[in-house]
Amino acid sequence: MPNTQVRSVKSTEGVNRAQRSQRKIMRRFVLSLLMLLLLGVIVFLLVPSPIEPAQWSVPTAPSLQEPGPWQNNNKLSSAQLVTDAPQSPEFITFDKEGQLYTGDSDGKIYKIAFDAEGNPQKAQVFADTKGTPNGLKFDFYGNLIVTDIQKGLLSINPSGSIEVLADQVDGKPIYLANELDIAKDGSIYFSDTSNYGRVTFSEIAENKPHGRLLKYDPMTKQTTVLLEGLYFANGVALSSEEDYVLVAESYHYQLTRYWLKGPKKGTSDIFASNLAGFPDNITRDEQGRFWVGIFTTRISFVDQMHRNPWLAGTMAKLPESLLSGASAPAKHGLVAEFSPLGELTGSWHDPIGSLYGVTTAVNHNGYLYIGTAPGGSQGVHRVLLAK
């Protein structure tokens, strides 16, 4: 055989040996990687969960497609932007002159006036709590009463001066003051959402009640606990007769009623259950109807966790940063309307998702004003109500 052919055969054999060697190295690398991943999974499963989830047989969510009060529509799809100065206007209220007030997650509280034709003017900063103002309502004296999730229950006078009314109850901190309503006698009813002190996926997965309904008496300056054991206590609203107060339990899709007068005084029951999503804030209009912002429609994965404590406990081991998407609001705007008897009389939707993450709906002067929270669309919106 000529030398050139011998060299060619040897060269080919060398290339083949090199390729086989590379494939062996690659197989060993892949096998090692798989073993490492398998070991990681085993360790992850063996590590104890930071929570002990409670099982809950979650009722099937109401259908948004079938005929009924939850059925899809486009009533919110034509929403008009009022102002985008507050990016996350959690709650909305109005003063006696009809000016709109709302807070933002950076601590600022904005005031928006309207011209003679009802057009919104440029938003002005009214006050800055240096916290996170959520609920807002004016008292009889013109002070803006605020529930701030970082600062507690606050009072802001017309000049913008801030006073802390309550940040403790029974010698313990008010962990997460959220929403409020004020009675004719000046009593302030407000929610302390959770002793977790923050919104966390672990609390959803754990499925245990950590919230409270509180009352502040302006005469004695004392705060008392009315209800404990609430599943993420949120929106608060008094009935028109002030014989009961409602509090939203977001994580159990229900509105709970606490009786203030009558034979049931001091007791509680369920006002509305199995809502089509996570109820947030509650407002009452002049007709006595309640409007409930639904932050997000039901999340099937969350309902599955409630039915399967092992799955919930396993998910709680993951870093919060990886779980934020699991509880993000669906891009579907939703508001529910209830009668004073707890009957769902209608729902308002934006299935397009231009307006979503709804926290508040306020029926005022011919419009339904909509607020949102971080994770949802930004700014205050409004929809013209049918006459």
UniProtKB/TrEMBL annotation:
Source superkingdom: Bacteria
Keyword line: Glycoprotein, Membrane, Phosphoprotein, Transmembrane, Transmembrane helix
Residues annotated as transmembrane: 29-47
Domain Strictosidine synthase conserved region: start-end pairs: 178-263
InterPro entries, per database record: 6-blade_b-propeller_TolB-like (IPR011042), Strictosidine_synth_cons-reg (IPR018119)
A Pfam family of this chain: Str_synth
Entry-linked PANTHER family: ADIPOCYTE PLASMA MEMBRANE-ASSOCIATED PROTEIN HEMOMUCIN-RELATED (PTHR10426:SF88), STRICTOSIDINE SYNTHASE-RELATED (PTHR10426)
Family: Belongs to the strictosidine synthase family.
Stated name of the protein: SMP-30/gluconolactonase/LRE family protein
